[in-house]
Amino acid sequence: MLTLCGIPLSNYHNKVKMVLLEKGIPFEEQRVPTGSTDEAVLACSPLAKVPFLRTEHGSLCESQVIVDYLEAAYPEPPLLPAEPFAAAKVRELAAFVDLHLELVARELYAQAFFGGRVGDEVQQSVRKRLVRHVAGFRRLARFSPYVAGERFTQADCAAFVSLPLVGMATRIVLGEDLLAAGGIDWKTYVARVGERPSAQKVSADRKADEAAMAAARAKR
After folding, report:
1. Total number of domains constituting the chain
2. Exposed end of the chain (fewer CB within 10 Å): N or C?
3. CA 217, CA 124: separation in Å to the nearest integer?
4. The domain boundary residue, chosen from 31, 53, 73
5. Do residue 69 and residue 104 come from a single domain?
6. 112 assigned to some structural domain
7. For residues 94 and 100, what is the distance between their CA atoms, to the nearest angstrom?
8. Residue 38: CATH number of its domain
9. Pairing of strands 27-31, 2-6
């Protein structure tokens, strides 16, 4: 059986988890924190990043690599169109969410979610880049009703778990939700996708993990 290793708080962990759930693939989860120095972890994820996936053939790291493997190994139900160009456009959207929206907004997370402080120079840089990147994403995304069009795809597994973080982090740190300001109605979209059983499972597990971590901190 496949084993998904990571933490339920990780949006990239949850991106892969949504794919597993949507496809009905049996899997187990193993809690592995990011930054582990355990050699068994480093053998699977050399940079100690999560998630990684243990399979009967060996391990895989990097969420999009894992998602593409799952699509090839478990093609039904499909989360990519059969036509190659259409499939590439879905991957393009997922890559845009991961690389040009979430990873840029991630520079704000220390202040937005973890009680840290992000310098003014970083804030200004993030704002400048995200204003441009959100405008680019708006040109690509269709939201009719899903990111790539009428069908739920891999791109939605990326967008559902990451767009809220981008919107919330920019609102908290920069004083403005840059997704909403750029014309992306992500809240309506997330609410729609959130009706899917896979999204409900991912969200419930994330909230339970957040509560458990808060309780653990309170006992210290």
Report:
1. 2
2. C
3. 32
4. 73
5. no
6. yes
7. 10
8. 3.40.30.10
9. parallel
Residue in the block written with tokens 């920019």: 170
Q: Are residue 103 and residue 209 in the same domain, yes or no?
A: yes
Q: How far is CA 90 from CA 120, 131, 151, 177, in A?
A: 35, 22, 10, 25
Q: What pTM was estimated for this model as a whole?
A: 0.95
pLDDT digits (tens), the chain, 220 positions: 999 999 999 999 999 999 999 999 999 999 999 999 999 999 999 999 999 999 999 999 999 999 999 999 999 999 999 999 999 999 999 999 999 999 999 999 999 999 999 999 999 999 999 999 999 999 999 999 999 999 999 999 999 999 999 999 999 999 999 999 999 999 999 999 999 999 999 999 999 998 888 887 777 7
Instruction: State the DSSP string of 158-210.
Output: HHHHHHHHHHHHHHHHHSS-HHHHTT--HHHHHHHHTTSHHHHHHHHHHHHHH
